[in-house]
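Re: export button greyed out
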Amino acid sequence: MPISYVNPEYPYRHSPDQDAGEPVHHRVIIVGGGPAGMAAAMDLALQGIETVLLDDNNTVSIGSRAICIAKRTLEICDRYGCAQPMLEKGVTWHLGKVFFGEEQVYEFNLLPEEDHKVPAFINLQQYYMEEYMVKRCLQLPQIDMRWLHKVINVKTDDSGAEVTVHTSEGDYVLTCDYLLVADGANSHIRSALGLESKGQVFEDRFLIADIIMKADFPAERRFWFDAPFHPDQSTLLHKQADNVWRIDFQLGWDADPDEEKKLERIRPRIEAMLGKDREWELDWASVYTFRCRKLDSFIYHRVFFMGDSAHQVSPFGARGANGALQGVENLGWKLAAVLRGEAPSELLATYDVERQHGARENILNSTRSTDFMTPKNHITKVFRDSVLELSRHYPFARTLVNSGRLSKPCSYPFSMLNTEDSECFNGGVAPGSPCTDAPVAGGNGSGWLLNHIGTRFCLMLKGEFDPDAVTTLMRALNRDADTVALLCVNPEGKPPEEAVVIRDEKGVLSERYALDECAVYLIRPDQHVTARWRNLDPIAVTKAVQRALGADLMRESAA
Amino acid sequence: MSSLQLEPNFTDPDAFYAALADIHRDKTPAASEKINARLILLLANQVGDQAILEQALAIASEVDSEAQDDE
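Workaround output, generated via the alternate export path:
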């Protein structure tokens, strides 16, 4: 347990389901109260879908663990309503420095442009992230959180799933239409169902030493290859909240994990790095190894795997929890649309297609970083060191230096749900890409575009349109359910009644989306663009909405 | 006079580096040495221009003499 943080204890509560005699049915059950499980519960709650969230523990993360929260994750959490405390507590940083020996060889700035609501990255201990997520979950009446309810058995077929839950009061059984699993890297449910997450184990060990220290070092990421204080291995220094500093030492495969966790082994390493005079206190230490692996399919009958139970990466690049939340957001709206009868169940298969692509991208990047940091043989070490030497003087070599390619939002340019561009857009946000934020005025008063879209589909219009034609289109789109929201940018004349009106006073929105005089964007509930046009064609929009909801998948599976 | 490109010019630096590491995977040092020699000759022919090649040769040997030789 860290000393800078007291883990909250959430109470075990008896559920009426335990007295029912026979299994109570829920539409959606989520297993695992970590970032992925809670995000899924919040996403579905905002869609009006009730969930039961089961967790075998009664607290948040033990130890700081994942500390880098990327911009896209903060944007997703902002939609869920839990980003604000993260932004307040977290340490904002955007500068990364890479050293080889004593010299700095490379520096990167993650914040190349202004006018975004949230920063490129914040550092925040995982327990804080989870604590704020728990608080938000408890505000949402659709979420039934059950601490110390441990799933010990799972069955599934094509019509549903059944879980046996163990508690201090005895076991009980629940059934559900869909079981969402986020029970971590060593997923018990994955093994219970005989599934294997396949990939690569890296023969290397790393020590995390979180120390409490009042230091005036800037809040930047510092990475050393072959540091003078830790020769032949890599070291990472990163600031967290509460004056806690993450130091990550590469130890090599032969290191003894139990010995290396001891303060008497850690102290000389840190003194060599920071000097003997500096005052610090060890907050938390952990020795870890890692894998890059994933399931061949994230869907097994009615069980959906999310987060580390579905895909796992090395920590370099901050693609674990950040990748997990993008995956959850991908699944949430699809499941809600299927449960509401707005979409065929075939839509759910696109969670696997789109997120396999995301997981491959994350695994590829984190594997490459790991291979660069830990060369596998003599010749790759020679190349690695040559790259670092050349990078001191020659900019071309700096593009090869890899101390982690930091998490960027994933795009789905080849998704079956997209409608390809048929008109000319010079730049902007292409179908499949996540929306870029931009400052706006009006609307709900938030001041940011992303706070106006998401959870439902959004039709964003700029230009002069016949308000009656728009109203007719919106009524047709929303005939059976409240599927699409309307957002008008700088409308000329009277906007349609149901429109939320925003003004692009700085011109940044028009520039980032290449709106020019006239443009129409169709945005998915997970804030990914799925189609765009230069003019409003009601038939094209209707078809694109149906396509994004999986109508064309159904036709293909029937053919 | 034409000059050696020292600003970034890779279309995909990470993919290149990964492919480079891949061709050396599970090779003996002697086999790796041969691969490197062939690779240099292939790329040198692609560059062609003797003036540019001489600039590259100069930088390669200069950096090497700076570095500690751990053989």
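The mean pLDDT of chain A is 95. The button fix ships in the next patch.
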